[in-house]
Amino acid sequence: MNKEWEMVIGLEVHVELSTKSKIFCSCTTEFGGEPNTHCCPVCMGMPGTLPVLNKKVLESAISAGLALNCEIEREPRFDRKNYFYPDLPKAYQISQLYKPIAHDGYVEILVNDNVKKIRIHEMHMEEDAGKLIHSDFDNETYPDYNRCGVPLLEIVSEPDFRSAEEVSAYLDKIRALFTYLEISDCKMQEGSMRADVNLSVRRKGEKTLGTRTEMKNINSIKAIERAIENEADRQVDLLLSGERVVQETRHWNDDKRFSYAMRSKENAQDYRYFPEPDIPPMIVTDEMVGDIRNNLPEFMEAKKERFMKQYGLSEYDAGLLVLNKKQAEFFEVVVSEGVEAKAIANWLIGYFSRSLRENNLEFEDLDISPVELSKLITYVEEGKVNRKEGLEILDNIIKGCGPEDVEKYIKDNDLFVSTDNSELEAEIDNVLSNNQKVVDEYKSGKEKVIGFLVGQVMKNGKGKFNPSNVKTIMEKKLKGEV
Ligand code: ADP
Ligand code: MG
Ligand code: ZN
After folding, report:
1. What tens digit of pLDDT does each residue of 280-307 get?
2. pLDDT digit string (tens) for 134-192?
3. For residue 46, which ligand has an atom nearest its CA?
């Protein structure tokens, strides 16, 4: 971007809460499902039905508000936001305008080794709308109301961002806080976290804000970064050529790498907000807030610090382990089984993440007994089972087809490294006598062919022999020392 200019960005982030039921009825919030099977008269907006607030939504919102260092509103209220859209059958959305559940907070982000505070203007609760399915088959559009009434939190930041990196650090931070709170899975690709980017530009040193545009619902952090760079350049070009930026909503097409205007921006007045008459104002007591505050989890940074201190891990290892709360907790259980911290850290950061990636799985998908895994790691680390075979077992465990009893499996399949050298020596003699030509090559000075011979023994041993042991004994035999 042009060096004399700066971008100014404010974000509106929507997060879908992972409560079991919807915000104002008892329908399931489960993602997907046959269209229009997760709904009822309430979430389909039938006249005469009454919404009842799901208490879990209020509790999740309070914990989120505290995690965002916000003040919690003690008399929050819901308001109606009126607009028509085919996926909004009531023709209004129940949201919060006048008394949102949380306000005046901040989060700290780390960009280029600098800590920066991003102020949170407010966070409110609202219901999600349905979806429109555009059918290629008959060229029609069909509404699916399954998502109607799924609870959302909307977090509105102050216009404090000055770069795309700051924006992605902030989104990572919100995801970390909310997944640690276990109130949302924050998956952008599934739409459970969505960000609207408000962006304006101005000459550096300028104090007043420029006219902004808004880009809605971009579904990956990478795409958001590209959209930001592109929009900032577009606005600077406009202003430099003497034109104006029009306040409007733009759609970012990430495949074609350009945006286009969708509609001129509505203001709050356009929605004719008024207090939702079907839901009485709520009272949030000190006791409720106090209870929730006392039960907040240890968050990512604190956990990382503790892992470094308590387990002697490097900052790098600790940082990777705590990226996922489930993984961090799993790590601690395995350590409590007596496995050395550095060993399990290496397994999780290395083999686990590789195998998860290859199998297109996430840590949450795994169903692994920490006790059984501890045994496997211990056997491999102590050389009782060869790494190759150990990792094959791990791979099967990750795929969900591993043994339930690791020790029994290893015994049944004769995978323990043999401590009986006579068995090994017999196998070495066998390989040497069957490969006379290779043995002659070795003896004539081509010593690296020993790799092939060791490989043959290892192959025939099917995991029973230790490779360095095989090599030592084989060398002795080839040199006539034994
Ligand atoms: P609206 O109610 O019209 O959506 P808000 O005042 O709620 O507008 O602001 C929405 C978001 O836009 C906030 O995150 C805010 O920080 C951001 N924002 C407001 N003005 C600007 C601006 N001139 N440039 C960049 N971001 C802005
Ligand atoms: Mg807004
Ligand atoms: Zn319902």
Report:
1. 999 999 999 999 999 999 999 999 999 9
2. 988 898 999 999 999 999 999 999 999 999 999 999 999 999 999 999 999 999 988 89
3. 3
**Ligand 1 atom 14: residue of nearest CA:** 10
For ligand 1, the distance from its centroid to the CA atom of residue 334, given in whole angstroms, is: 47
Over the stretch 81-116, which tens digit does the pLDDT of each residue have?
999 999 999 999 999 999 999 999 999 999 998 999
Atom of ligand 1 nearest to the CA of 210: 23
Q: Is 456 in the pocket of ligand 1 (CB under 6 A)?
A: no
**Whole-prediction pTM:** 0.86
3-state secondary structure the chain: CCCCEEEEEEEEEEEECCCCECCCCCCECCCCCCCCCCCCCCCCCCCCCCCCCCHHHHHHHHHHHHHCCCEECCCCCCEEEECCECCECCCEEEECCCCCCEEEEEEEEEECCEEEEEEEEEEEEEECCCEEEECCCCCCEEEEHHHCCCEEEEEEECCCECCHHHHHHHHHHHHHHHHHHCCCCCCHHHCCEEEEEEEEEEECCCCCCCCCEEEEEECCHHHHHHHHHHHHHHHHHHHHCCCCCCCEEEEEECCCCEEEEEEECCCHHHHCCEECCCCCCCCCCHHHHHHHHHCCCCCHHHHHHHHHHHHCCCHHHHHHHCCCHHHHHHHHHHHHCCCCHHHHHHHHHHHHHHHHHHCCCCHHHCCCCHHHHHHHHHHHHCCCECHHHHHHHHHHHHHCCCCCCHHHHHHHCCCECCCCHHHHHHHHHHHHHHCHHHHHHHHCCCHHHHHHHHHHHHHHHCCCCCHHHHHHHHHHHHCCCC
Q: What percent of the chain has pLDDT over 70?
A: 99
Architecture of the domain whose range is 421-478: Orthogonal Bundle (1.10)
Q: Does the Cβ of 200 fall within 6 Å of ligand 1?
A: yes
Mean pLDDT of 184-213: 94
Identify the pLDDT of residue 265: 66
- Residue 268: CB within 6 Å of ligand 1? yes
Confidence of residue 219 (pLDDT cuts 50, 70, 90): confident
Mean pLDDT of 186-210: 94
- With the most atoms of ligand 1 within 8 angstroms of its CB, the residue from 7, 103, 156, 207 to mutate is 156
Q: State the average pLDDT for the chain.
A: 92
Mean pLDDT in residue range 205-223: 92
Listed by start position, the domains of the chain span 5-288, 298-412, 421-478
Distance in Å, CA 182 to ligand 3 centroid: 23
Q: Is the CB of 271 under 6 A from ligand 1?
A: no
Q: Counting ligands in written order, which one lies closest to the CA of residue 7? A: 1
Check pocket membership of 13 for ligand 1, CB cut-off 6 A.
no
158 CA closest ligand 1 atom index: 16
